[in-house]
Design brief:
heterodimer, A: mainly alpha, 13 helices, elongated, B: Rossmann fold, six-stranded mixed β-sheet, four-stranded antiparallel β-sheet, 11 helices, binds adenosine-5'-triphosphate, binds magnesium ion
Amino acid sequence: MNWRAIRAIVRKDLKVVFQNKGVSVPLIVVPTIILIALPALAAFAPALQGVPGTPFAGLDTFLQQMPPALQAQLAGYSESQAMVVLVLVYLLAPMYLILPLMVASVIAADSFAGEKERKTLEALLYTPTTDRELFLAKLLSAWLPAVGVAWAGFLLYTTTANLAAWPTMGRILLPNAMWIALAGWLAPAVAGLGLGFTVVISARAQSFQEAYQLGAVVVVPILALVIGQAAGVLYFQVGLVFGIGLLFWAADAVLLWFGGRIFRRSELAARL
Amino acid sequence: MERKPVIVVQDLTRRFGEVVAVDHLTLEVVPGEIFGFLGHNGAGKTTTVRLLNGILTPHGGTARVLGLDPVHDGPALRRRTGVLTENPSLDERLTGRENLSLYADLYGVPPGEVPRRTEELLQFFELADRADQKVGTYSKGMKQRLALARALVHEPELIFLDEPTAGLDPVAARHVHTLIARMGHEQQRTVLLCTHNLVEAQKLCHRVAVLEHGRLIALGTPTDLARQWVRSHRLELEVAPDSLPMAQAVLQTRWGISNPLLENETLILTGVARETIPDLVASLVTAGVRIYRLTPQEPTLEDVYFALHGEDRAPGPPPLGILHAGPDTKGRKR
Ligand SMILES: Nc1ncnc2c1ncn2[C@@H]1O[C@H](COP(=O)(O)OP(=O)(O)OP(=O)(O)O)[C@@H](O)[C@H]1O
Ligand SMILES: [Mg+2]
């Protein structure tokens, strides 16, 4: 492996990728909503309690739909505390996963399809890198920042969530074991999912926009988790996070194996 | 000097669907040579460059470049070749300097040498004052020069230049010509030059290959090709004014040239075979025509090109056994 070449490509990709508005705008907006706005709202949750028309109006009935194990977790709390814990610890947990997913997809779209669109791919193909080195460099260009953003986001979320919860809880809420597993184990796998999916799509897509839009489909499994939890089908706990992580890592492996097969110089050159 | 060929190509073939982009191409390029690839749009020049660098796989035939097989030794081969792509293929979001140092890293230029090497190239290509601006702000010519600098950043032994002067102004083009000539003649590097520009090919190339629909239709030095293919010359004949009617009569009766063009008191004769010039002169002199000047125009590569591609291909001796040469009756552009 020619690590110097790989480093050079990753460094260059990271330097230029944020100059693409299609990359930088969602990278500012989405984390702001998920990491700051949504958890901050939880601070107002107790005030909204019982207000008709808000999701918090019928908390009792909502809680009753939750799996018994989750109800047991919330048993010792007052109603407003239960609500804060439910939102900050559980309901927002799958939303957090959108972060690594989005960062990986957007950067991969720029790095794979965008390279072709900007016609910078050809010179890269003429370099003495092997197909595998080029592929690995491109993967790292998207995966490293996605994991970086996920981890920085984890710290930021922990801070905002604790601040928002303090008036109600009077104690530090996060991180707990589940959130550590979420950030440490599942988030990198989710980044890999967005990445692998976009890589496969980018082989056909002619432009950044096209790859980005098609790549958005990969958010479906994450939305399924959000809805699944809200509907009481599952709830985020260490075991589940670990299990989903295994599943996603396996999906990553399949997608990247497939992506590596189509990322062949001669195939790419034939589409220049 | 070692004369072992740098490029040996045998029956190289590549298709894209129905189109045969390169069709049983066979040729050799020797070290230190500036070798031209000439051909219309779509003749297969760019595809050949891609095949020879192992970024496209051939559907048939073999190639050896610097003793390596492009299909299997691609990375090792590409370390020693430099390619100026048809499209500059620069990252417009990086500065000129960043583009160069990125490729210096990719081509394995020793890290300690990268700053000096990039600076030298920026100076040489007169980009130093704009080196730290984004390439997106450069003019076409500046981009072309930067791409050329990038192709040379690792001092390759074998250089592929795909239309290096396309879109350059005459001054910049001349600059690039000087550079190419120097690479070939002084530094003994081998250059493979794809071009439509016949003047450029004539000026720079030791040998040229003319491609048509992926096939090699002629190969040789520009002079040889001219001898082989351009079988009729343009002659300028200036005679004393009182001899003019006599000259015209002789040309008409003896040589079948009726009403030759008269430009500035000079007769322009076309379609005269090289071998007949001595007899033509003799017959004029015998008839008492006083000749001031007879200037045969040396055929150029352009003539060859149009002879090869011309529509008036009359039967004639086929020098390469592929095509027939005919009188050069059209295509005079200059
Ligand atoms: N990636 C590709 N996919 C499909 N067809 C291709 C591809 N690359 C080249 N061709 C076809 O192969 C033929 C040769 O193309 P090539 O680009 O090699 O020609 P060229 O001599 O470089 O032309 P130009 O002077 O226009 O650059 C053309 O008919 C072209 O349409
Ligand atoms: Mg071309």
